[in-house]
Every structure is written in structure tokens, then in C-alpha cells.
């Protein structure tokens, strides 16, 4: 039986290009991939070989709980949500920097979770007392993510 995967991605490159990379890997491994997008990205989804956006044709879909070891970014997001405060802002900022580094070919896709984990282990966190606190947490996380990426990239060959 062919495994069927459903991926969701927004209409911006920061979300579409990582989804495309995952979709291509899943198709290459023999899976059927359906990419759910918004209207801005429907043409993009249809342009990825082996990927469809027709869930009616997909037939029955069985959903399983995601494995937090296979999906470490989900684990990081759940932990940030559980702890609350400024950690969600920090996680978002770290993710944005890591995904942009991937898009710029300065970071391998599989290294995104490690960058986020490094940042989350080092941020101060704290209560969300106002916009100034959120902006400071965002700035701190972006700086830490940039440092982590620079350390990982030193001497490494990134994807072609």
C-alpha cells in the first residue's frame, strides 16, 4: 500500500519551499503527496512533479499522531506553548531566521530544528508584559539563531 502524505503550506516562500523539499523527498521514497495551500500557491503546488492537490482522488486518509522525535519542530512548538510567555515569540523568530538561511542555501533543511533548539535553550523567556518585551525577545532569538547558523555553517557545505 502506498503511503499518502498531506502537507500544508502557506503562500509565502518561507513556508512553500521547505514543504516542496519535503514533498520531493516523500515522492522519491514512493509516497503519494497532497499539498494543501492557499490561493496564492495553488499554481506552485501543481508544478511540483508527483504532487497533487486533489484530496477527493486521494481517497481514504488515516491520520496518526505525529512522532515528536521525527518532527522535532513540532516538539519545540508544543514546549513553547506549554511554557508560554515570550517563548512562542522566540520560537517564531528562530524559525524565521533558520528557514531564511535554508532558502539562502546557508543551512541544510534538516538543521532547522537544531537551530531552533539551540535558541530555545538559551533565550531568557519571561512574561509577555507588552510589545517592548515581545520585540526584545524576537531580537534576542534572531541574534542567537544567526549565531547558531554561522557556527553550523563554518566549514560545512550547504545544499546545492
Structural class label: mainly alpha
Instruction: Provide the domain count.
Output: 2
The N- to C-terminal Cα distance equals 33 Å
Strand and helix order: EHEHEHHHHH
Taking Cα atoms only, what radius of gyration do you get, to the nearest Å? Answer: 17 Å
Keywords, separated by commas or semicolons:
single chain, 160 residues, mainly alpha, 2 domains, 3 strands
Question: What does this molecule look like?
Answer:
This protein has 160 residues and is mainly α. It has 2 domains: 4-58; 72-153, Rna Polymerase Sigma Factor, Chain: A (Orthogonal Bundle). It has 7 helices and 3 strands; from the N terminus they run βαβαβααααα. The longest helix is centred in the last third of the chain and has 23 residues, at 131-153. The mean pLDDT is 82.
What order do the helices and strands come in, and which of them pair?
Blueprint: E1 4-8, H1 13-28, E2 32-36, H2 42-47, E3 51-52, H3 55-58, H4 72-83, H5 87-103, H6 112-122, H7 131-153
Parallel strand pairs: 1-2, 2-3
Helix pairs in contact: 1-5, 4-6, 5-6, 5-7, 6-7
Brief sketch in words of this structure:
By secondary structure, the chain is mainly alpha-helical. The chain has helices spanning 13-28, 42-47, 55-58, 72-83, 87-103, 112-122, 131-153; strands spanning 4-8, 32-36, 51-52.
